[in-house]
Amino acid sequence: MLAGLADTPWSVLVILWPLVGALACFLWPRHANPLGLLAALGSVACVATLAWQVVEQGAQRHAVGGWGAPLGIDLYADGLSLLMLVMTAMVGLGISIYSSGYFDRKTAAVFWPLWLFLWTALNALLLSADIFNLYVTLELLGLAAVALVALAGGANALTAAMRYLLVSLLGSLCYLLGVALLYHSFGSVDIAILAQRVEPLPSVWAATGLMSAGLLLKTALFPLHFWLPPAHASAPAPVSAMLSALVVMASFYILLRLWLEIFPLSGAALGQLLGLLGAAAVLWGGIQALRQTRLKLLIAYSTVAQLGYLFLAFPLGTSFAWKGALYLLLSHALAKAAMFMAAGNILRFGGHDRIADLDRVVQRLPLTLTAFSLAGISLMGLPPSGGFIGKWLLLDAALYSGQWWWALILITGGLLTAAYVFKVVGYAFTPAEVSHEARTVPARMEWTALLLALAAVLLGLFALWPLTLLDIGSPLAGGYAG
Amino acid sequence: MNSGLLYALTGVGLFTLGLNALIMHAHLLRKILAINVMGSGVFLVLVALGGRVPGASPDPVPHAMVITGIVVAVSATALALALMLRVRAATGKPRLPEERQE
Fold first, then answer.
1. Residues paired with A354 in a beta bridge
2. A477 in a domain, yes or no?
3. For residue A63, what is the DSSP state?
4. Backbone region of residue A154 per phi and psi (left: phi > 0; alpha: psi in -120 to 50; beta: other values)
5. Is residue A344 a contact partner of residue A243, using CB atoms and an 8 Å limit?
6. Total structural domains in chain A?
7. What is the rounded CA–CA span in Å between residue A406 and residue A387?
8. Is B99 a member of any domain?
9. What total of structural domains would you count in chain B?
10. Residue of A nearest to B11 (CA)
11. Is residue B21 one of the residues assigned to a domain?
């Protein structure tokens, strides 16, 4: 039995299971809710088994259909992709449970197939071993995400979805042009083969520029973030959660992989530029978040700021810095999903998300407000949260490499985060002038938000396991700055 | 200059033209068409660079990539057109509103 489990290519099942679930939800829309939950649970189980397999046997490579690279498609699971898969599974399960209480029957029938398609694309992206497959999965992810934003209906959501779609297509096309150049220069799209053959040619520079620009547009790094706040703020709450927690991270993951494995020659200048843009994002996103009057927009701008932190690892380039950025990514995904869910609860409860009229939410939705505050603690980077570990690693790397100015950005960003989190919490404690009709919020929606936020905080206490996991067959050990 | 390079440069030209149109035009249909022109440019680059050695039979792998790319482009265009109609029905105008400054 155990030998059978060990021989099964779980990386295929990780993609296949949510795909079959999506099709089932599409075919039997009346039963979309139970079928969707079943698919979510199954996906989590598949990821868990894959995790066991990778931990036991090391990095897994599976040639789909027995063809193998360079002609066929390879699925590759190492510590880095596994960690992202586990994070996706955790947040995905949370979103699935939350959504089963959030949507009415009619919307649920449309939501479930799209969400499971998105999950499929995300899993496939994280397991892809070649840059063309990454393009295809990135497109699939983008299309599903756009359709989910449009689900909310109304002029705001539709125009935000349209803008998101155009930006997403533009980003993918830039990336694809880079793929064409790399294939022309080295005759392969497989990341491992490219890593061996790559040389500093002019075409590699052009490809680096094009692919980085496309991916930065999709990751919404300042100043390419303009499309993110409207799209993330106007989507339904569970969709905002998955966009902010999972979808933007996918393009960051691709950039990280390319940067570590194919572009190690691109050197320090571009790294400094990315770090500078990241620093600008931290400050600009923080200030904009403080200025917002709507809760969901505030959280969306906070995503812009938090994404900036991830890019602070590029100028440092040490193993510590990459691990710090990845740890921030993990805890941000959990915390931000929890925050958007909490905002969704508040929105449903009061019928609006104006921060100034939050009117003693604390007495009526204590679990939701606890979730929001715990998620805020992780975003600020207070100990013992996961955000603290990530920032600590980055801070350490910055001081160690003598680039202390990045440490200043980290600290200022933390203060800005504290300011906008306390602004929301403060209003939630004070009575507002306008009282409003309250609607009940299903218990599972409150509890999922709370559990995800709790996980983000607890991530700081159990830091060792994810950090050692990252070392399995992973490119993180080196780094050009040593 | 061999013909492969000429086609590849034409492809880059199409990409640039499409990018320009995507930014300059406000009408959504034009933006969607611009994306398609950009996509065709990229596909042309892929196919043209496939014939690397003059006289030898061209590399089939880029062709497979282009076919995949066309499938993706068709579905993206379908989604974009459907979304455009919804935007027009909701706002009365087939264009994106200007960025609101708060």
1. A294
2. yes
3. E
4. left
5. no
6. 1
7. 16
8. no
9. 1
10. A177
11. yes
CB–CB of A269/A197 below 8 Å?
A: no
Query: Which residue in the block uniquely carries the two structure tokens 């609860």?
Result: A345
* Residue A394 forms part of a structural domain: yes
Residue A384's pLDDT is: 85
What is the SS3 assignment for B52-97? CCCCCCCCCHHHHHHHHHHHHHHHHHHHHHHHHHHHHHHHCCCECC
In a domain? residue A393: yes
Residue B24 falls within a domain, yes or no? yes
For residue B72, give its domain range.
Answer: 3-91
pLDDT at position A15 is 95
Give the separation between CA A389 and CA A391, rounded to whole angstroms.
6
B87 vs A155: CB contact, 8 Å cut-off?
Answer: yes
- Which of residues 138 through 167 in chain A touch B, CB cutoff 8 A? 139-140, 143, 146-147, 150, 153-155, 158-159, 161-163, 165-166
Identify which of A135, A161, A183 has the shortest CB distance to residue B62. Answer: A183
d(CA A203, CA A385): 43
Query: For residue A352, how many other CB atoms are within 10 A of its CB?
Result: 15
Name the residue among A127, A17, A130, A126 with its Cα closest to residue A68: A130
Distance, CA of B33 to CA of A445 (rounded, Å): 42
The DSSP string of A243-305 is IIIIIHHHHHHHHHHHHHHT-GGGHHHHHHHHHHHHHHHHHHHHHHHHH-SBHHHHHHHHHHH
When the pLDDT of each residue in chain B is averaged and rounded to a whole number, the result is: 88
What are the chain B neighbours of A177 within 8 Å (beta carbons)? 15, 41-42, 45
Per the structure, the complete domain to which residue A412 belongs is given by: 269-482
* CB of B27 less than 8 A from some CB of A: no
A260-265: Cβ within 8 A, 24+ apart = A260/A322, A260/A475, A260/A476, A260/A479, A261/A191, A261/A192, A261/A194, A261/A195, A261/A475, A262/A131, A262/A182, A262/A191, A262/A194, A262/A195, A262/A198, A263/A198, A263/A204, A263/A208, A264/A478, A264/A480, A265/A198, A265/A199, A265/A200, A265/A204
Q: Which residues of A touch B59 (CB under 8 A)?
A: 187
Is residue B52's pLDDT more than 70? no
Q: Calculate the alpha carbon distances from A473 to A5, A100, B20 in Å.
A: 21, 37, 43
Can you tell me the distance from the alpha carbon of A311 to that of A320, in angstroms, rounded to the nearest whole number? 14
Calpha distance A295→A390 (Å, rounded): 26
Taking the CA of residue A329 and the nearest CA in chain B, the distance in Å comes to 29
Instruction: Please name the helix (run of DSSP H) or strand (run of DSSP E) that holds residue A8, with its range, or none.
Output: none
pTM: 0.93
Q: What pLDDT, on the 0 to 100 scale, is given for residue A5? A: 78
- A31 DSSP assignment: G
E strand or H helix at A432, and its extent?
A: none
What CATH number did the domain enclosing B50 receive? 1.10.287.3510
**Which residue ranges of chain A lie beneath pLDDT 70?**
1-2, 264-267, 432-437, 474-482
Partners of A77 in beta bridges: A60
Q: From chain A, pick out residues whose CB is under 8 angstroms from the CB of B80.
A: 162, 165-166, 169
Residue B34 lies in a domain: yes
Answer whether A162 sits within 8 Å of B15, measured CB to CB: no
Answer whether residue A153 is part of any domain.
no
- Contact list in B for residue A155 (CB cut-off 8 A) is 87, 90-91
